[in-house]
Structure formats: C-alpha cells, structure tokens
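Deliverable D2.4 — example input (structure tokens):
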C-alpha cells in the first residue's frame, strides 16, 4: 500500500513538472512563464520528494528529501522575484489582453 501511495506521489509530481515545462513553453511573457516555473515546478518537485521519502522510509533519506523541499521553497520565490525585477528594469512589459490585441493589429 505504501508503494502505491509513493508511486502516486511521484506520478503526480512528474505530471506537475511536465505542466510547468509546458507552461514555460506556451505562456506569452517572462512573468507568466516565471510563475509557471516556480509555482508548479516547486509543487511537482515537492511531490516527487514526498514520494521518495515515503518509498524509502529511511530517516537519512527522509531528512534529505525534507531539506530539498525546504531549499526549493526558500529559493524559488527569491529567484522568481529577482527575474521579475530584472525584467522590469530592462523595460519588459507584462502581457495583457490589450497588448496582445495591439500586437495582432500591427501584423
């Protein structure tokens, strides 16, 4: 039963990570791509680590998984903030439906 739960967590984490990758490829600007990469990517990685911790059930491995998730939760928002701030300083404007309509008129 534990193996099934661990496999489900790893599968859900992998699906979330794939969704994050698709979001990075499909979303229109750096800000929405950054959102997909940090939010969904961190959730996916956390689920994979939870599945690994549940599967192995060794205290040393569980501690490593917890530390990895803690590190991801600590660094992902900081990295996203720095990327967003640098993008704004470079003059990259956030996407909006109005700007997309203006781009279509120019074509």
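Example output (designed residues):
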């Amino acid at each position: 039963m534990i193996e099934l739960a661990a496999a489900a967590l790893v599968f859900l984490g992998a699906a979330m990570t794939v969704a994050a990758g698709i979001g990075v490829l499909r979303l229109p600007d750096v800000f929405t791509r950054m959102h997909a990469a940090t939010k969904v990517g961190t959730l996916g990685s956390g689920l994979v680590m939870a599945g690994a911790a549940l599967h192995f059930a060794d205290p040393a491995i569980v501690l490593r998984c917890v530390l990895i998730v803690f590190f991801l939760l600590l660094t992902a928002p900081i990295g996203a903030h720095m990327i967003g701030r640098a993008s704004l300083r470079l003059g990259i404007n956030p996407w909006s439906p109005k700007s997309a309509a203006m781009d279509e008129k120019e074509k």
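The chain has four helices and no strands.
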